[in-house]
């Protein structure tokens, strides 16, 4: 099948239209961080953005930043965190097989990184949102992301590390406004509506720029010191999903629509290595406030996890490992406890006086949900959950009337929209990079002049994910890549 | 970390020690098939093999070949199979996301491919081994591989398609003896103790040979028409496993020890694309004869599949998706039914009069296995398995005394050996190839002069696996790659 060529182009075959020291491809969070640092280090920086404005997927995100080790916000909220506890938690939660080298740097540098955001003008309110949820409906600056749930509460001293700009719900816009302004102020110049299509390579095998497309025009950029690829992942590229992360096929895409994998492909065309291309983030539109007080069951009416974990974890476990459909089960007493704002517009649809009735109306195997609820209640009576270790504060025998909610119905009365599966996500795998964002070839050596960060690269993640770790590692290693590119040796004759 | 370089070498920078038309790298099943066809088409063929003798992992395998559509053996055993039924079964069983284009050719060409093996002297006895199992302990030439288990029995008309050379247990040796002899007879010449390390590329970007190592010497080969990479997968390369298929880390390796991914890496270093690098085969040393009559439960005492499926499927479901440890549960009546030879040397270790006792000694959550057995028995009484649809012929209420077997104890009294997890496997992902074995670059175009087959390539598999599909597609597409390479245009000046 003919695809647009991503093959590298020889420097001798092109005429350059623009020149800079550091060329950043993609103006999301990682690109803004790289552009800021490269410009602050004195480099002449151009940023290419394929959309008509900057921000990318980051600007549409929740804006969570997974930070800790004793930030100002954590201290103000009364938590005494350490880089070691943060490292232990993330090693488990982003694993198995999280990247220990990157993670160590990320945790040790986390307080500094938090202060960097503050210095760029990102506002963080010094208050904790202390409830299970995907995103606070308040403007609190700190939230739990599963650190206090089993087994993580036994692996590291729990402290909340979800930091977020001061606004209710989606905070990615505020974050990106500040980072884009900071990059511009430092001197980085953006070229919008400009899609990089191919890397330009000189005779010595060094990346010397990119070929790009702006509407109908071909525009060629020379980068004297380095090219930093920060163009996102590949969730919008169906063929790449089928080849590398098929679990996301058919689900919604957490993306601004431009996560087409082009950064990854331009680099692999040049012989760059990849890592963890099958790793993904998946979110299921199940409401944590509901399932913490009730349960989440699979298509066989079985629980499969402690429902008080980080929501991305129950989502991942469901979509990757359990037979669907999934059902959030709640009783009247539990439902009545939940703040209206915390329901995210979800209305129980299937109501029944008994579990047997509910089970029948959901089409579950006969006796399956009854057995699940009977077992749950028997142990909940004693404040125990020997199967999954849900925290005792959520344990209470469930009593009729009951209701079930189909996550595929979505939040805020959306009904079945998009893919209609109730699940969506993005890709975590990408280019194999050093801690300074240098892109490695298949022999483990950096490709001269080529850097990557954000979801174009494989970051701190193994097979797991926690909110705020993608913006977190994208900006952290984006900054490092920007600095490394700015200090890169000039090419011969540059 | 410094790794041996797999970067391509320019043809102008080397002096060739040997020349041929078609150079095949790796003398397992795919390599033998490619070498035979290329030589039979009149090409001058050299085969490089890194070990001191040919055969590779294929020679140590069970020797199953997944073939059907109406072979001579199927007919003799009374089965009326069609390519369409075979296609429907494999689309489901190798999926989700099996390769439809390759699979269609594979199924339509299956009878011819079977006859090709016969013509090469591979003996197939025209009799059926009609019992659940990993491998027959008889010399029967045909076996079921889950075609008659739910849901596959509703997807395609069931017919057994596991074809195997006439010998009890491991038949890969016989298979490879015949294929190696056939390749030699056709004129292919093998260079042993010779490891290919880098591809040689000419100025036009065409693959023109390989650099290899033979003990301390560097030996350079010129291939006038094409290089066919058939050097296996990457299960023996821990770093590649961590990067691409971490689920196999820590488990046993189904390999002759040389599946180091070098063929894949040499090609990706040149900009070749990969597919499905996370797909794997996994086998759990649980005995199908036992669990069909009893049950297989996970670390929470729950069943998770109809135990009469193809054994690789219950293995895959367990290791990829269920919390361990896993237990094979059987009652005395079931145990007494099993032929001694069919026990594969397995001795029940944990015995108990009641399920409650057994559950306690296995350390399962209180009441968990009891609930599982109670539910199983209640429905088995009526010949039903509404959860997992095990065939009624295996359904019978289980009655004490009971026993449990830990798959990690292995077969044939091996005890805990190797990795000690009871699971092992190999990789299914690899280079992105056309149906003629041409290796594609990241733009979807064939790289001139470069071919691949067997586990160096991504074949017919999506995320699933069935015994005999790896030797099957390796030989089928190996033959096509050999023919395509033999007919390749000679390089300029060749």
Automatic annotation (TrEMBL), chains A, B:
Top-level taxon of the source organism: Bacteria
Record-listed E.C. numbers: 1.3.99.5
Name of one Pfam family that matches: FAD_binding_2
Biological processes annotated in GO: steroid metabolic process
SUPFAM superfamilies: FAD/NAD(P)-binding domain, Succinate dehydrogenase/fumarate reductase flavoprotein, catalytic domain
Record Gene3D superfamilies: FAD/NAD(P)-binding domain (3.50.50.60), Succinate dehydrogenase/fumarate reductase flavoprotein, catalytic domain (3.90.700.10)
Gene Ontology molecular function, alphabetical: 3-oxo-5-alpha-steroid 4-dehydrogenase activity
Keywords: FAD, Flavoprotein, Oxidoreductase
Cofactor requirements of the protein: FAD
Domain spans labelled FAD-dependent oxidoreductase 2 FAD-binding: 21-470
PANTHER family per record: 3-OXOSTEROID 1-DEHYDROGENASE, FUMARATE REDUCTASE
NCBIfam families xrefs: PRK07121.1-3 (NF005510)
Name the record gives this protein: 3-oxo-5alpha-steroid 4-dehydrogenase
């Amino acid at each position: 099948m003919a695809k647009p060529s991503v093959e590298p182009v020889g420097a001798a075959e092109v005429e350059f239209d623009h020149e800079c020291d550091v060329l950043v491809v993609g103006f999301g969070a990682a690109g803004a961080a790289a552009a800021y640092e490269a410009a602050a280090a004195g480099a002449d920086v151009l940023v290419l953005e394929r959309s008509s404005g900057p921000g990318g997927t980051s600007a549409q995100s929740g804006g969570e930043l997974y930070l800790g080790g004793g930030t100002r916000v954590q201290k103000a909220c009364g938590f005494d965190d350490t880089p070691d506890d943060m490292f232990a938690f993330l090693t488990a939660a982003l694993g198995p097989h999280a990247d220990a080298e990157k993670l160590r740097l990320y945790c040790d540098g986390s307080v500094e990184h938090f202060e960097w955001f503050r210095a760029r003008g990102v506002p963080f309110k010094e208050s904790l949102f202390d409830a299970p949820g995907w995103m606070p409906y308040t403007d609190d600056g700190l939230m739990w992301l599963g650190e206090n749930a089993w087994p993580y509460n036994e692996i590291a001293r729990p402290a909340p590390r979800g930091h977020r700009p001061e606004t209710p719900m989606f905070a990615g816009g505020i974050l990106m406004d500040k980072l884009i302004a900071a990059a511009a102020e430092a001197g980085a110049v953006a070229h919008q509506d400009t899609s990089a299509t191919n890397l330009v390579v000189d005779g010595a095998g060094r990346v010397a720029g990119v070929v790009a497309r702006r509407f109908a025009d071909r525009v060629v950029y020379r980068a004297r010191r380095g090219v930093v690829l920060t163009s996102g992942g590949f969730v919008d590229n169906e063929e790449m999903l089928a080849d590398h992360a098929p679990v996301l096929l058919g689900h919604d895409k957490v993306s601004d629509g431009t996560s087409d994998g082009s950064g990854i492909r331009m680099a692999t065309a040049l012989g760059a290595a990849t890592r963890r291309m099958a790793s993904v983030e998946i979110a299921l539109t199940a409401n944590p406030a509901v399932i913490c007080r009730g349960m989440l069951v699979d298509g066989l009416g079985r629980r499969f996890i402690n429902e008080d974990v980080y929501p991305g974890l129950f989502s991942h476990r469901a979509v990757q490992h359990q037979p669907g459909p999934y059902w959030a089960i709640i009783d009247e007493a539990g439902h009545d406890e939940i703040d209206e704002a915390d329901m995210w517009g979800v209305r129980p649809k299937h109501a029944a006086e008994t579990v047997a009735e509910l089970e029948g109306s959901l089409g579950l195997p006969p006796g399956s949900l009854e057995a699940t609820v009977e077992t749950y209640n028997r142990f909940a009576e004693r404040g125990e959950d020997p199967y999954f270790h849900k925290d005792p504060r959520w344990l209470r025998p469930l009593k009729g009337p009951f209701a079930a909610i189909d996550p595929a119905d979505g939040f805020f009365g959306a009904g079945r929209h998009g893919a209609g599966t109730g699940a969506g996500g993005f890709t975590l795998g990408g280019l194999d990079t050093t801690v300074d964002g240098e892109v490695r070839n298949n022999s483990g050596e950096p490709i001269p002049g080529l850097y990557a960060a954000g979801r174009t690269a494989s970051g701190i993640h193994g097979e797991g994910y926690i909110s705020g770790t993608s913006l977190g590692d994208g900006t952290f290693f984006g900054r490092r890549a920007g600095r490394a590119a700015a200090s890169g040796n000039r090419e011969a004759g540059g």
